[in-house]
Amino acid sequence: MGGWPILLASCLALGLRLPHLGRASLWYDETVSAYLATQPLRAAIQHTRLDIHPPGYYMLLNLWRGLAGRSEFSLAYFSLVFGVLLIPLTYTVARRLFGLQSGLVAAWLSAVSAYGVWYSQEVRMYSLAACLGCLLVLATERATRGDARLGSALLWGLLAALSLYVLYYLAFLVAFLSLFWFVLCLSDRRSRVHLRHWLAGQGMALLLYIPWLPIALRQALEPPVPPWRSAQPLALMLRQSALALSGGEALPERYLLLAVALCALALLAPWLARRARSSWSIVGSFAFPCLSLIALSLLVPLFHPRYLFAFSPLFLVSVSAIASWPWRRLGRTFSLLVVIAF
Fold this sequence. Notes:
This protein is mainly α and 342 residues long. The chain contains 17 helices and no strands.
């Protein structure tokens, strides 16, 4: 069972994230979060109509401020909660897709991830978005079971809408999982029943997101890109993505080859575990959003490595599939090496 190891991994994650929480001065984006958390909800919503991010996180942070206070420590603690929650979530995703051993590896990788430590201390929406990404994958896995009920589809729709209210870039994950679910429906014997569930899930998401949909569409067609952000070459975006996913944005360039190797492992490890459906699910869940963001950024200068953090726990789950390889000794050796490298 994973109870005690996951509790220990969560305690380790808390110990790595808590000591420096709120000590550093807020940078510009964090000051925006702190400011909007003090404003009436209507004012925060009005601000995000012209912002690059939707209002969901700011609304939740506003409610949190009412409970925990408005100090920098209190505001950052909101992100810390979700940053620590990522440990049991990554464990659950990996265990559901690849088994117990992969779950344990994913949890420990998530606990010591420098990428995770950083964004668990930042007064922004990224740790919350990462949790929602994990929950969406779990909801998809549940909704696509042979015995899935309508409630599972409606839960998926609820999570999809909430994700879009928190971070627009989660739309790439929602789109992939929706397509993945649809393809599974077509290949199932009870396709009519499952297609009705799929339609119910999409309908729930659309119904809940309709109030914000016109604004989201306008921002998609006319992105409010900050004036200081410029277009980046494809090679640079790929390099920054590999480094960030492997060891955080601060990982030096000299580790690029190691980062590329880890990315290759994330793409290949699930397939070597010989679980085709799980492999499509997890590889697509991190690779499709990351590559879509990079591709879109060739047209509009949107890219920043911080946006990839929402998909980084799924990247770690994909890496953890090495623990489920049929060659147990090799899988355990690779798992140990990866944990040590992190």
